[in-house]
């Protein structure tokens, strides 16, 4: 098959949507090399690359398409798809080109979440309107919808009345690096590079209200009564981040809660931007802390399980789907609940060992091969 992707986020996004896109594309090319994969990229990329004999990057060629690259991505690329006899187009993040349903090209769209519908107050009105138009069109016209969790499938049906018969739940994988044990010399290199303390908790994800870093900071205040282990935060943010930092300052926690992404040297480091150093950062952590209120899947949870580190996450939305029996679950509204889990992961060696083993076993259902096979099954179903 000639398979094309909306690869904007594969080339330009450093968070969840980008990781999903890159991991899936690489997994498909590795495990199903008999197909050709065409990666439609609206503009040249700076930080992320995808290479391989089956992978072909496509960029706008006409001057008008280069200037209005977003329109090329959302509408005009259809001519290229037709001219190059593409068999199937996969929109990797919620959308497909408008009008593609009239071309005869088979279409699949991955829907990650409908968080903007659940928490509209956290999004600008115009953004909500644009997302709703694109998402509804994709759900209505795509031949198949890939939901990355049962939670997302339920939301698509409840919010958009999506056709359940078209929806397939295909879980995502994470970068294979997280499945590999980092050797001691590499860990020491990373420890020196980032000036890491001997023990630390780790928080990974955008510093936005839904991710709930504020409650983690409140839990750190409570934990100080028993033990002191710093928290490393990887992720950027705006107004909510400033609110959290004001709270940290008011509690005198500036030395205990360290925002790695604020370090200008790290923010410009290709190995930090691309997350190549993250497997070591995870594996040296006392625990990953991810008590989000709502996710489409929660990829850091899986990264933590694969890294054989204790994972603390929320007992809500799809996070139990991602964490399985190996995670430590908390009430995201209760700092006391988070503090208790932090204390347990820092002090109860045997309980942590048991959870890590359960988590590692559970993570095997999300390997690159299994997730790529599930998606390829959808492709083949559409093309029968």
What can you see in these coordinates?
The radius of gyration is 21 Å and the shape is globular. It has two domains: 188 residues, Glycogen Phosphorylase B (Rossmann fold, 3-Layer(aba) Sandwich); 191 residues, Rossmann fold, CATH 3.40.50.2000. The strands form two sheets. The protein has a seven-stranded parallel sheet with strand order 3-2-1-4-5-6-7, with helices on both faces. It has a six-stranded parallel sheet with strand order 10-9-8-11-12-13, with helices on both faces. Helix 2 packs across helix 18 and helix 9 crosses helix 16. It is an alpha/beta fold and 384 residues long. The chain has 18 helices and 13 strands.
Largest sheet: 7 strands, parallel
**What count of domains describes the coordinates?**
2
CATH architecture of the largest domain: 3-Layer(aba) Sandwich
Total number of helices: 18
Q: What fraction of residues sit in β-strands? A: 5-15%
State the name of the first-level CATH class of the largest domain: Alpha Beta
Radius of gyration in whole Å, from Cα?
A: 21 Å
> How many DSSP-defined strands?
13
Spans of at least 5 consecutive residues with low confidence: none
The CATH topology label of the largest domain is Rossmann fold
Mean pLDDT, as a whole number?
Answer: 95
Form type: globular
Which structural class best describes the helix and strand composition? alpha/beta
CATH superfamily of the largest domain: Glycogen Phosphorylase B
Instruction: Note the gap between the termini.
Output: 12 Å
Widest sheet: strand ordering: 3-2-1-4-5-6-7
Percent of residues in helices comes to 40-55%
